[in-house]
Amino acid sequence: MAQSQVSDDHALQFLASEGYLPLALADHPGMVEAYTQLFAQTTQFFNLPADSPEKTAHQAASGAAASEEGFSRIPHEKSIMTVKTSARCPATLEPALQTAWSLTGAFLQAITTAIAHTLELPPTVFHPFTGPCVALPANERTPTLVRMFRYDRPAPHAGCTVNAEKHKDLGMLSLVVGHSPGLQALDARTGAWVSVEEGANLPPGSVARAGGLTATLLAGETLAFLSRGVYKAGVHRVVCAPASRAETGGGDGDDGDGDGDGDGGKGGAYRFSIVFTLRAAPAPLFTRDFESRVVGEFGEGERVEGESSAVMFERIMRTHWNVNAAPSVREEQRRRFEGRKESVGLGGADRQERASG
């Protein structure tokens, strides 16, 4: 979708109702070049040996917070590198990440201005929460992050695998840039999964103009809260098709395609994606600032009167379990969460959507 269309009410109405919006990356100056370079550097990083200093120095914490910052590996599923500051960014990734972060941060902030218009709110109402996140911070973290994923594909002739189960993002907006199809969004009207990175569901010619890259905008739980559900958080998952026999190769440093880059081409041993998740920076939050004819009034249990937005985010986070944690950790989170929800009588369909990325 062209940049002029992103601010168009019709496009944002689709985002509001469905929680996702396909974009044409090439319509946004500098984005294709920045993400092409970042994918190349991401591949180099993931191909490093497991005991390389650049990986061990950025090893993520264990437990539920593993996907919040640093490098983590979930065998037979995915590798993740999450960055919040340049101080904790591997040297292999920093140059391209700085560029991609600045372009994407400014782009998503502009979209929040357009969203404010659709909600009949002041154009800068989101800016106290987005402004500190537009550029990659040097040392002081904000909740905003970039996650680089390398998903393991199943073996040739095996069935497709769900590498990230059904979930919603916690922040305001996420931009998912894909290297090959795999992202699926739930159609809010039919309940069917839509392969949003397949050509038939993308703006005409957008993949070719972007050198094979796709871009999808997702609404998150924070935006859903601040808009009182006018914008629905996009339910999505990642499904990887099998690697082709010809492109399946050796270990982490070689995908068998002869170029030594480990990326396996578009249908090789891995699927890569890069996700910029815009989360609200800590700032005093007054929910009355987000009330309008469109949004309505926040109820007594919803109102916030000057608390830090970090408190709101923690409340949202506590009601979700993390699909990017290790299987044993997320299963324990899921059991604890489902036990709490059973006690208040929520059904299974609601519980399944209380997973987060």
Element layout with pairings:
Layout: H1 3-6, H2 9-18, E1 20-23, H3 31-47, H4 53-56, E2 70-74, E3 78-83, H5 94-118, H6 127-130, E4 145-152, E5 161-167, E6 173-178, E7 183-186, E8 193-195, H7 206-209, E9 214-219, H8 221-226, E10 236-240, E11 270-278, E12 284-286, E13 305-308, H9 309-318, E14 321-322, H10 327-343, H11 348-352, E15 355-356
Parallel strand pairs: 14-15
Antiparallel strand pairs: 1-9, 2-3, 3-4, 4-11, 5-10, 6-9, 6-11, 7-8, 7-10, 12-13
Helix pairs in contact: 3-5
What can you see in these coordinates?
With 357 residues, the chain is α+β, with helices and mostly antiparallel strands. 30% of the residues lie in helices and 21% in strands. The chain contains 11 helices and 15 strands. The protein has helices at 3-6, 9-18, 31-47, 53-56, 94-118, 127-130, 206-209, 221-226, 309-318, 327-343, 348-352, and strands spanning 20-23, 70-74, 78-83, 145-152, 161-167, 173-178, 183-186, 193-195, 214-219, 236-240, 270-278, 284-286, 305-308, 321-322, 355-356. The strands form 4 sheets. A 7-stranded antiparallel sheet has the order 1-9-6-11-4-3-2. A 4-stranded antiparallel sheet has the order 5-10-7-8, with no helix packed on it. β7 (183-186) and β8 (193-195) form a beta hairpin. α3 crosses α5. The protein is globular and about 55 Å long. The two termini are 25 Å apart.
